[in-house]
Write the structure tokens for this entry.
Amino acid sequence: MPTIEVCLSPKLVPCFNLNGKTAVVIDVLRATSAMVTGLAHGVQAIRPVSTIEECQLLIEQGYIGAAERNGQVVDGFPFGNSPLAFQQADLAGKKVALTTTNGTKAIELSHAAESILVGAFLNLEAIVDYLKQENQSVVLVCAGWKDNFNLEDTLFAGAVVAGLGKDFETHCDAALAASALYARFEDDLFAAIQQSSHFHRLAKLGIEDDIKFCLQRNVYHLVPVMQGPELVPAMPQ
Amino acid sequence: MPTIEVCLSPKLVPCFNLNGKTAVVIDVLRATSAMVTGLAHGVQAIRPVSTIEECQLLIEQGYIGAAERNGQVVDGFPFGNSPLAFQQADLAGKKVALTTTNGTKAIELSHAAESILVGAFLNLEAIVDYLKQENQSVVLVCAGWKDNFNLEDTLFAGAVVAGLGKDFETHCDAALAASALYARFEDDLFAAIQQSSHFHRLAKLGIEDDIKFCLQRNVYHLVPVMQGPELVPAMPQ
């Protein structure tokens, strides 16, 4: 039986053996929500990069640049990591180069995995369906906030663990904890997130609409998967 | 108002500013439970050390040696980290040098804190009372298992967060998560731990009695505190 494990922070990735497994990278507020939204609205591919410099170089190669640091759009870039901005802009057929505080780093750290998917509440059901079909051991990699644990990514990991149910085996304490936390908070995710450090940190940036958008479940039935250096929609299995 | 934060793994210690704060190191199964038990039964002082070599050198200086790796007593040492062994042996007035897989390392990593205490379910109420009296900001440092998150240390952290209640402020997601997990599992800690990775890993070592002992709350009203290189019982405040 395939196994499911949860990695609660990028710092803990070395505790996991990713070889031959599927990694699902999670940065609910807001990188992976933005990736899912962008691809669902016709973006051809999203290239996650670590640095602002790489992002700038890719603009010269025809990519649309998107850069976020500390919750804000980096000066000079048309986009940050707001999924609503990706939803409203007409980026159909375009390629986007994206760098964010936490999410793109977590993708990079997961390179040893056999394949890398991107998950968020917006595509929860799609992720669960895909993993069940694939029937391969999985590590859910929470991007956290600046290397530390965060609540929103853990809750999403818990939702996936709950969704995979008895088809996957786990002796992972973090998976157990995440699913217990999701069971506790699933009826009102926004109330839980209002208590979180992320909400306090970013409330002053006026991104409450973004947060509410990101906490919606199953808006898009699409799974972004890394293909070479880019995220593209996975083909239906 | 003083703050309370929870550090879920030794790897995450760099995410916290320990300056001027009290650190409570937690390794419920079994290092900090053994430390509390030993001091409660008259051990004069416990010296936590990182390596087996340091532990051996201290034996030559008159310490009783205690060494655990991967849940087992290290060959040639009279004790490992079993609290029941410390309870049953007559070590009154003796000094113990102790090295364990996770707990002693977490103590070392917390050196930047103003003071370092050691907590376990066995002295839960004593820790909570002490922290309330002290009224200083606190970071609860979970020793985890080989750098990764574990359930039992997080549950104890949650018990302390719950105990400190409204006298301490927190915007720490890990504190929020830990207290929610404790609320979920406090009525049957043993059932929760039976699902944990630690239980599966160590069940074959026949330490179930030790685990049950460690999950008892408020057996000893004693707070071990680091004084120089040694843990001693804190003076009543």
